[in-house]
Design brief:
Layout (H helix, E strand, L loop, with lengths): L2 H32 L4 H4 L13 H14 L20 H32 L4 H25 L7 H9 L2 H8 L2 H13 L4 H22 L1
Helix pairs in contact: 1-3, 1-4, 1-5, 4-5, 4-6, 4-9, 5-9, 6-7
Length: about 220
């Protein structure tokens, strides 16, 4: 492994990954508070400080290893706790709370698109501009991937929780039983590169958006 290349990757990807995962979880907590549950707020989990959300395995070890071996970059933070007993209209609230995370990732992808477009117009130190542009590209990719991945209807992913609360309670309870092995299933599928059919169209669409932004700046 080329240590310099690895450290360069870390310098480009660290900030986008940390904030993609952090804001994803904070968005869940904000939405839970909107519907009446202050658990995340009382535990200090509505902070934008990444240290409050880092999972040593999901935020550091797994993404670092995947970067080192050139695998698909996925990761996770400590889940924001939600007490359903404090929610107004729990089923509807849980759907909104689940969708808040992917929505935050899509919003961040849009912001990183704006940063990338700004860099194409900025006349400054080429090394710094190039580094920020690469970071913006990383931010776009990680946020799109996290948004799409989390919408898969597999518990404990957000899409799985949405589907659980859309189904009749008896069927939702059966789907919930997948949760203990659901994330292992997702990691396994990603490790074998079986999500290309899912990510490739999303990333191609984003590529066209970036192309339009950069083209407009030429």
């Amino acid at each position: 492994m080329d240590l310099i290349a690895f450290l360069t990757k870390i310098s480009i990807w660290a900030i986008p990954v940390l904030f993609a995962i952090t804001l994803h979880e904070v968005a869940h907590g904000w939405m839970a508070r909107y519907f009446g549950d202050r658990t995340a707020e009382l535990l200090g989990r509505l902070s934008l400080n990444p240290l409050r959300h880092i999972d040593p395995v999901g935020t550091v070890l797994v993404p670092g290893l995947l970067l080192a071996v050139g695998g698909p970059l996925i990761g996770w933070a400590k889940p924001v706790p939600v007490a359903t007993r404090g929610l107004r209209n729990p089923r509807r609230a849980l759907i909104a709370i689940s969708l808040a995370g992917p929505a935050a990732n899509l919003a961040m992808a849009a912001i990183w698109c704006g940063v990338l477009a700004a860099m194409t117009r900025f006349n400054g130190n080429l090394t710094m501009v190039g580094w920020i542009a690469l970071m913006a590209q990383a931010g776009i990719v990680i946020n799109v991937v996290l948004a799409v991945l989390n919408l898969l209807p597999i518990p404990p992913l957000d899409g799985g929780r949405v589907l659980t609360n859309l189904l009749p309670p008896s069927l939702g309870a059966k789907l919930d039983r997948v949760e203990p092995v659901g994330f292992l299933l997702v990691i396994g599928l990603a490790g074998f590169g079986l999500f290309g059919w899912l990510f490739d169209p999303a990333l191609r669409l984003v590529g066209r958006v970036i192309g339009a932004l950069v083209g407009d700046s030429a």
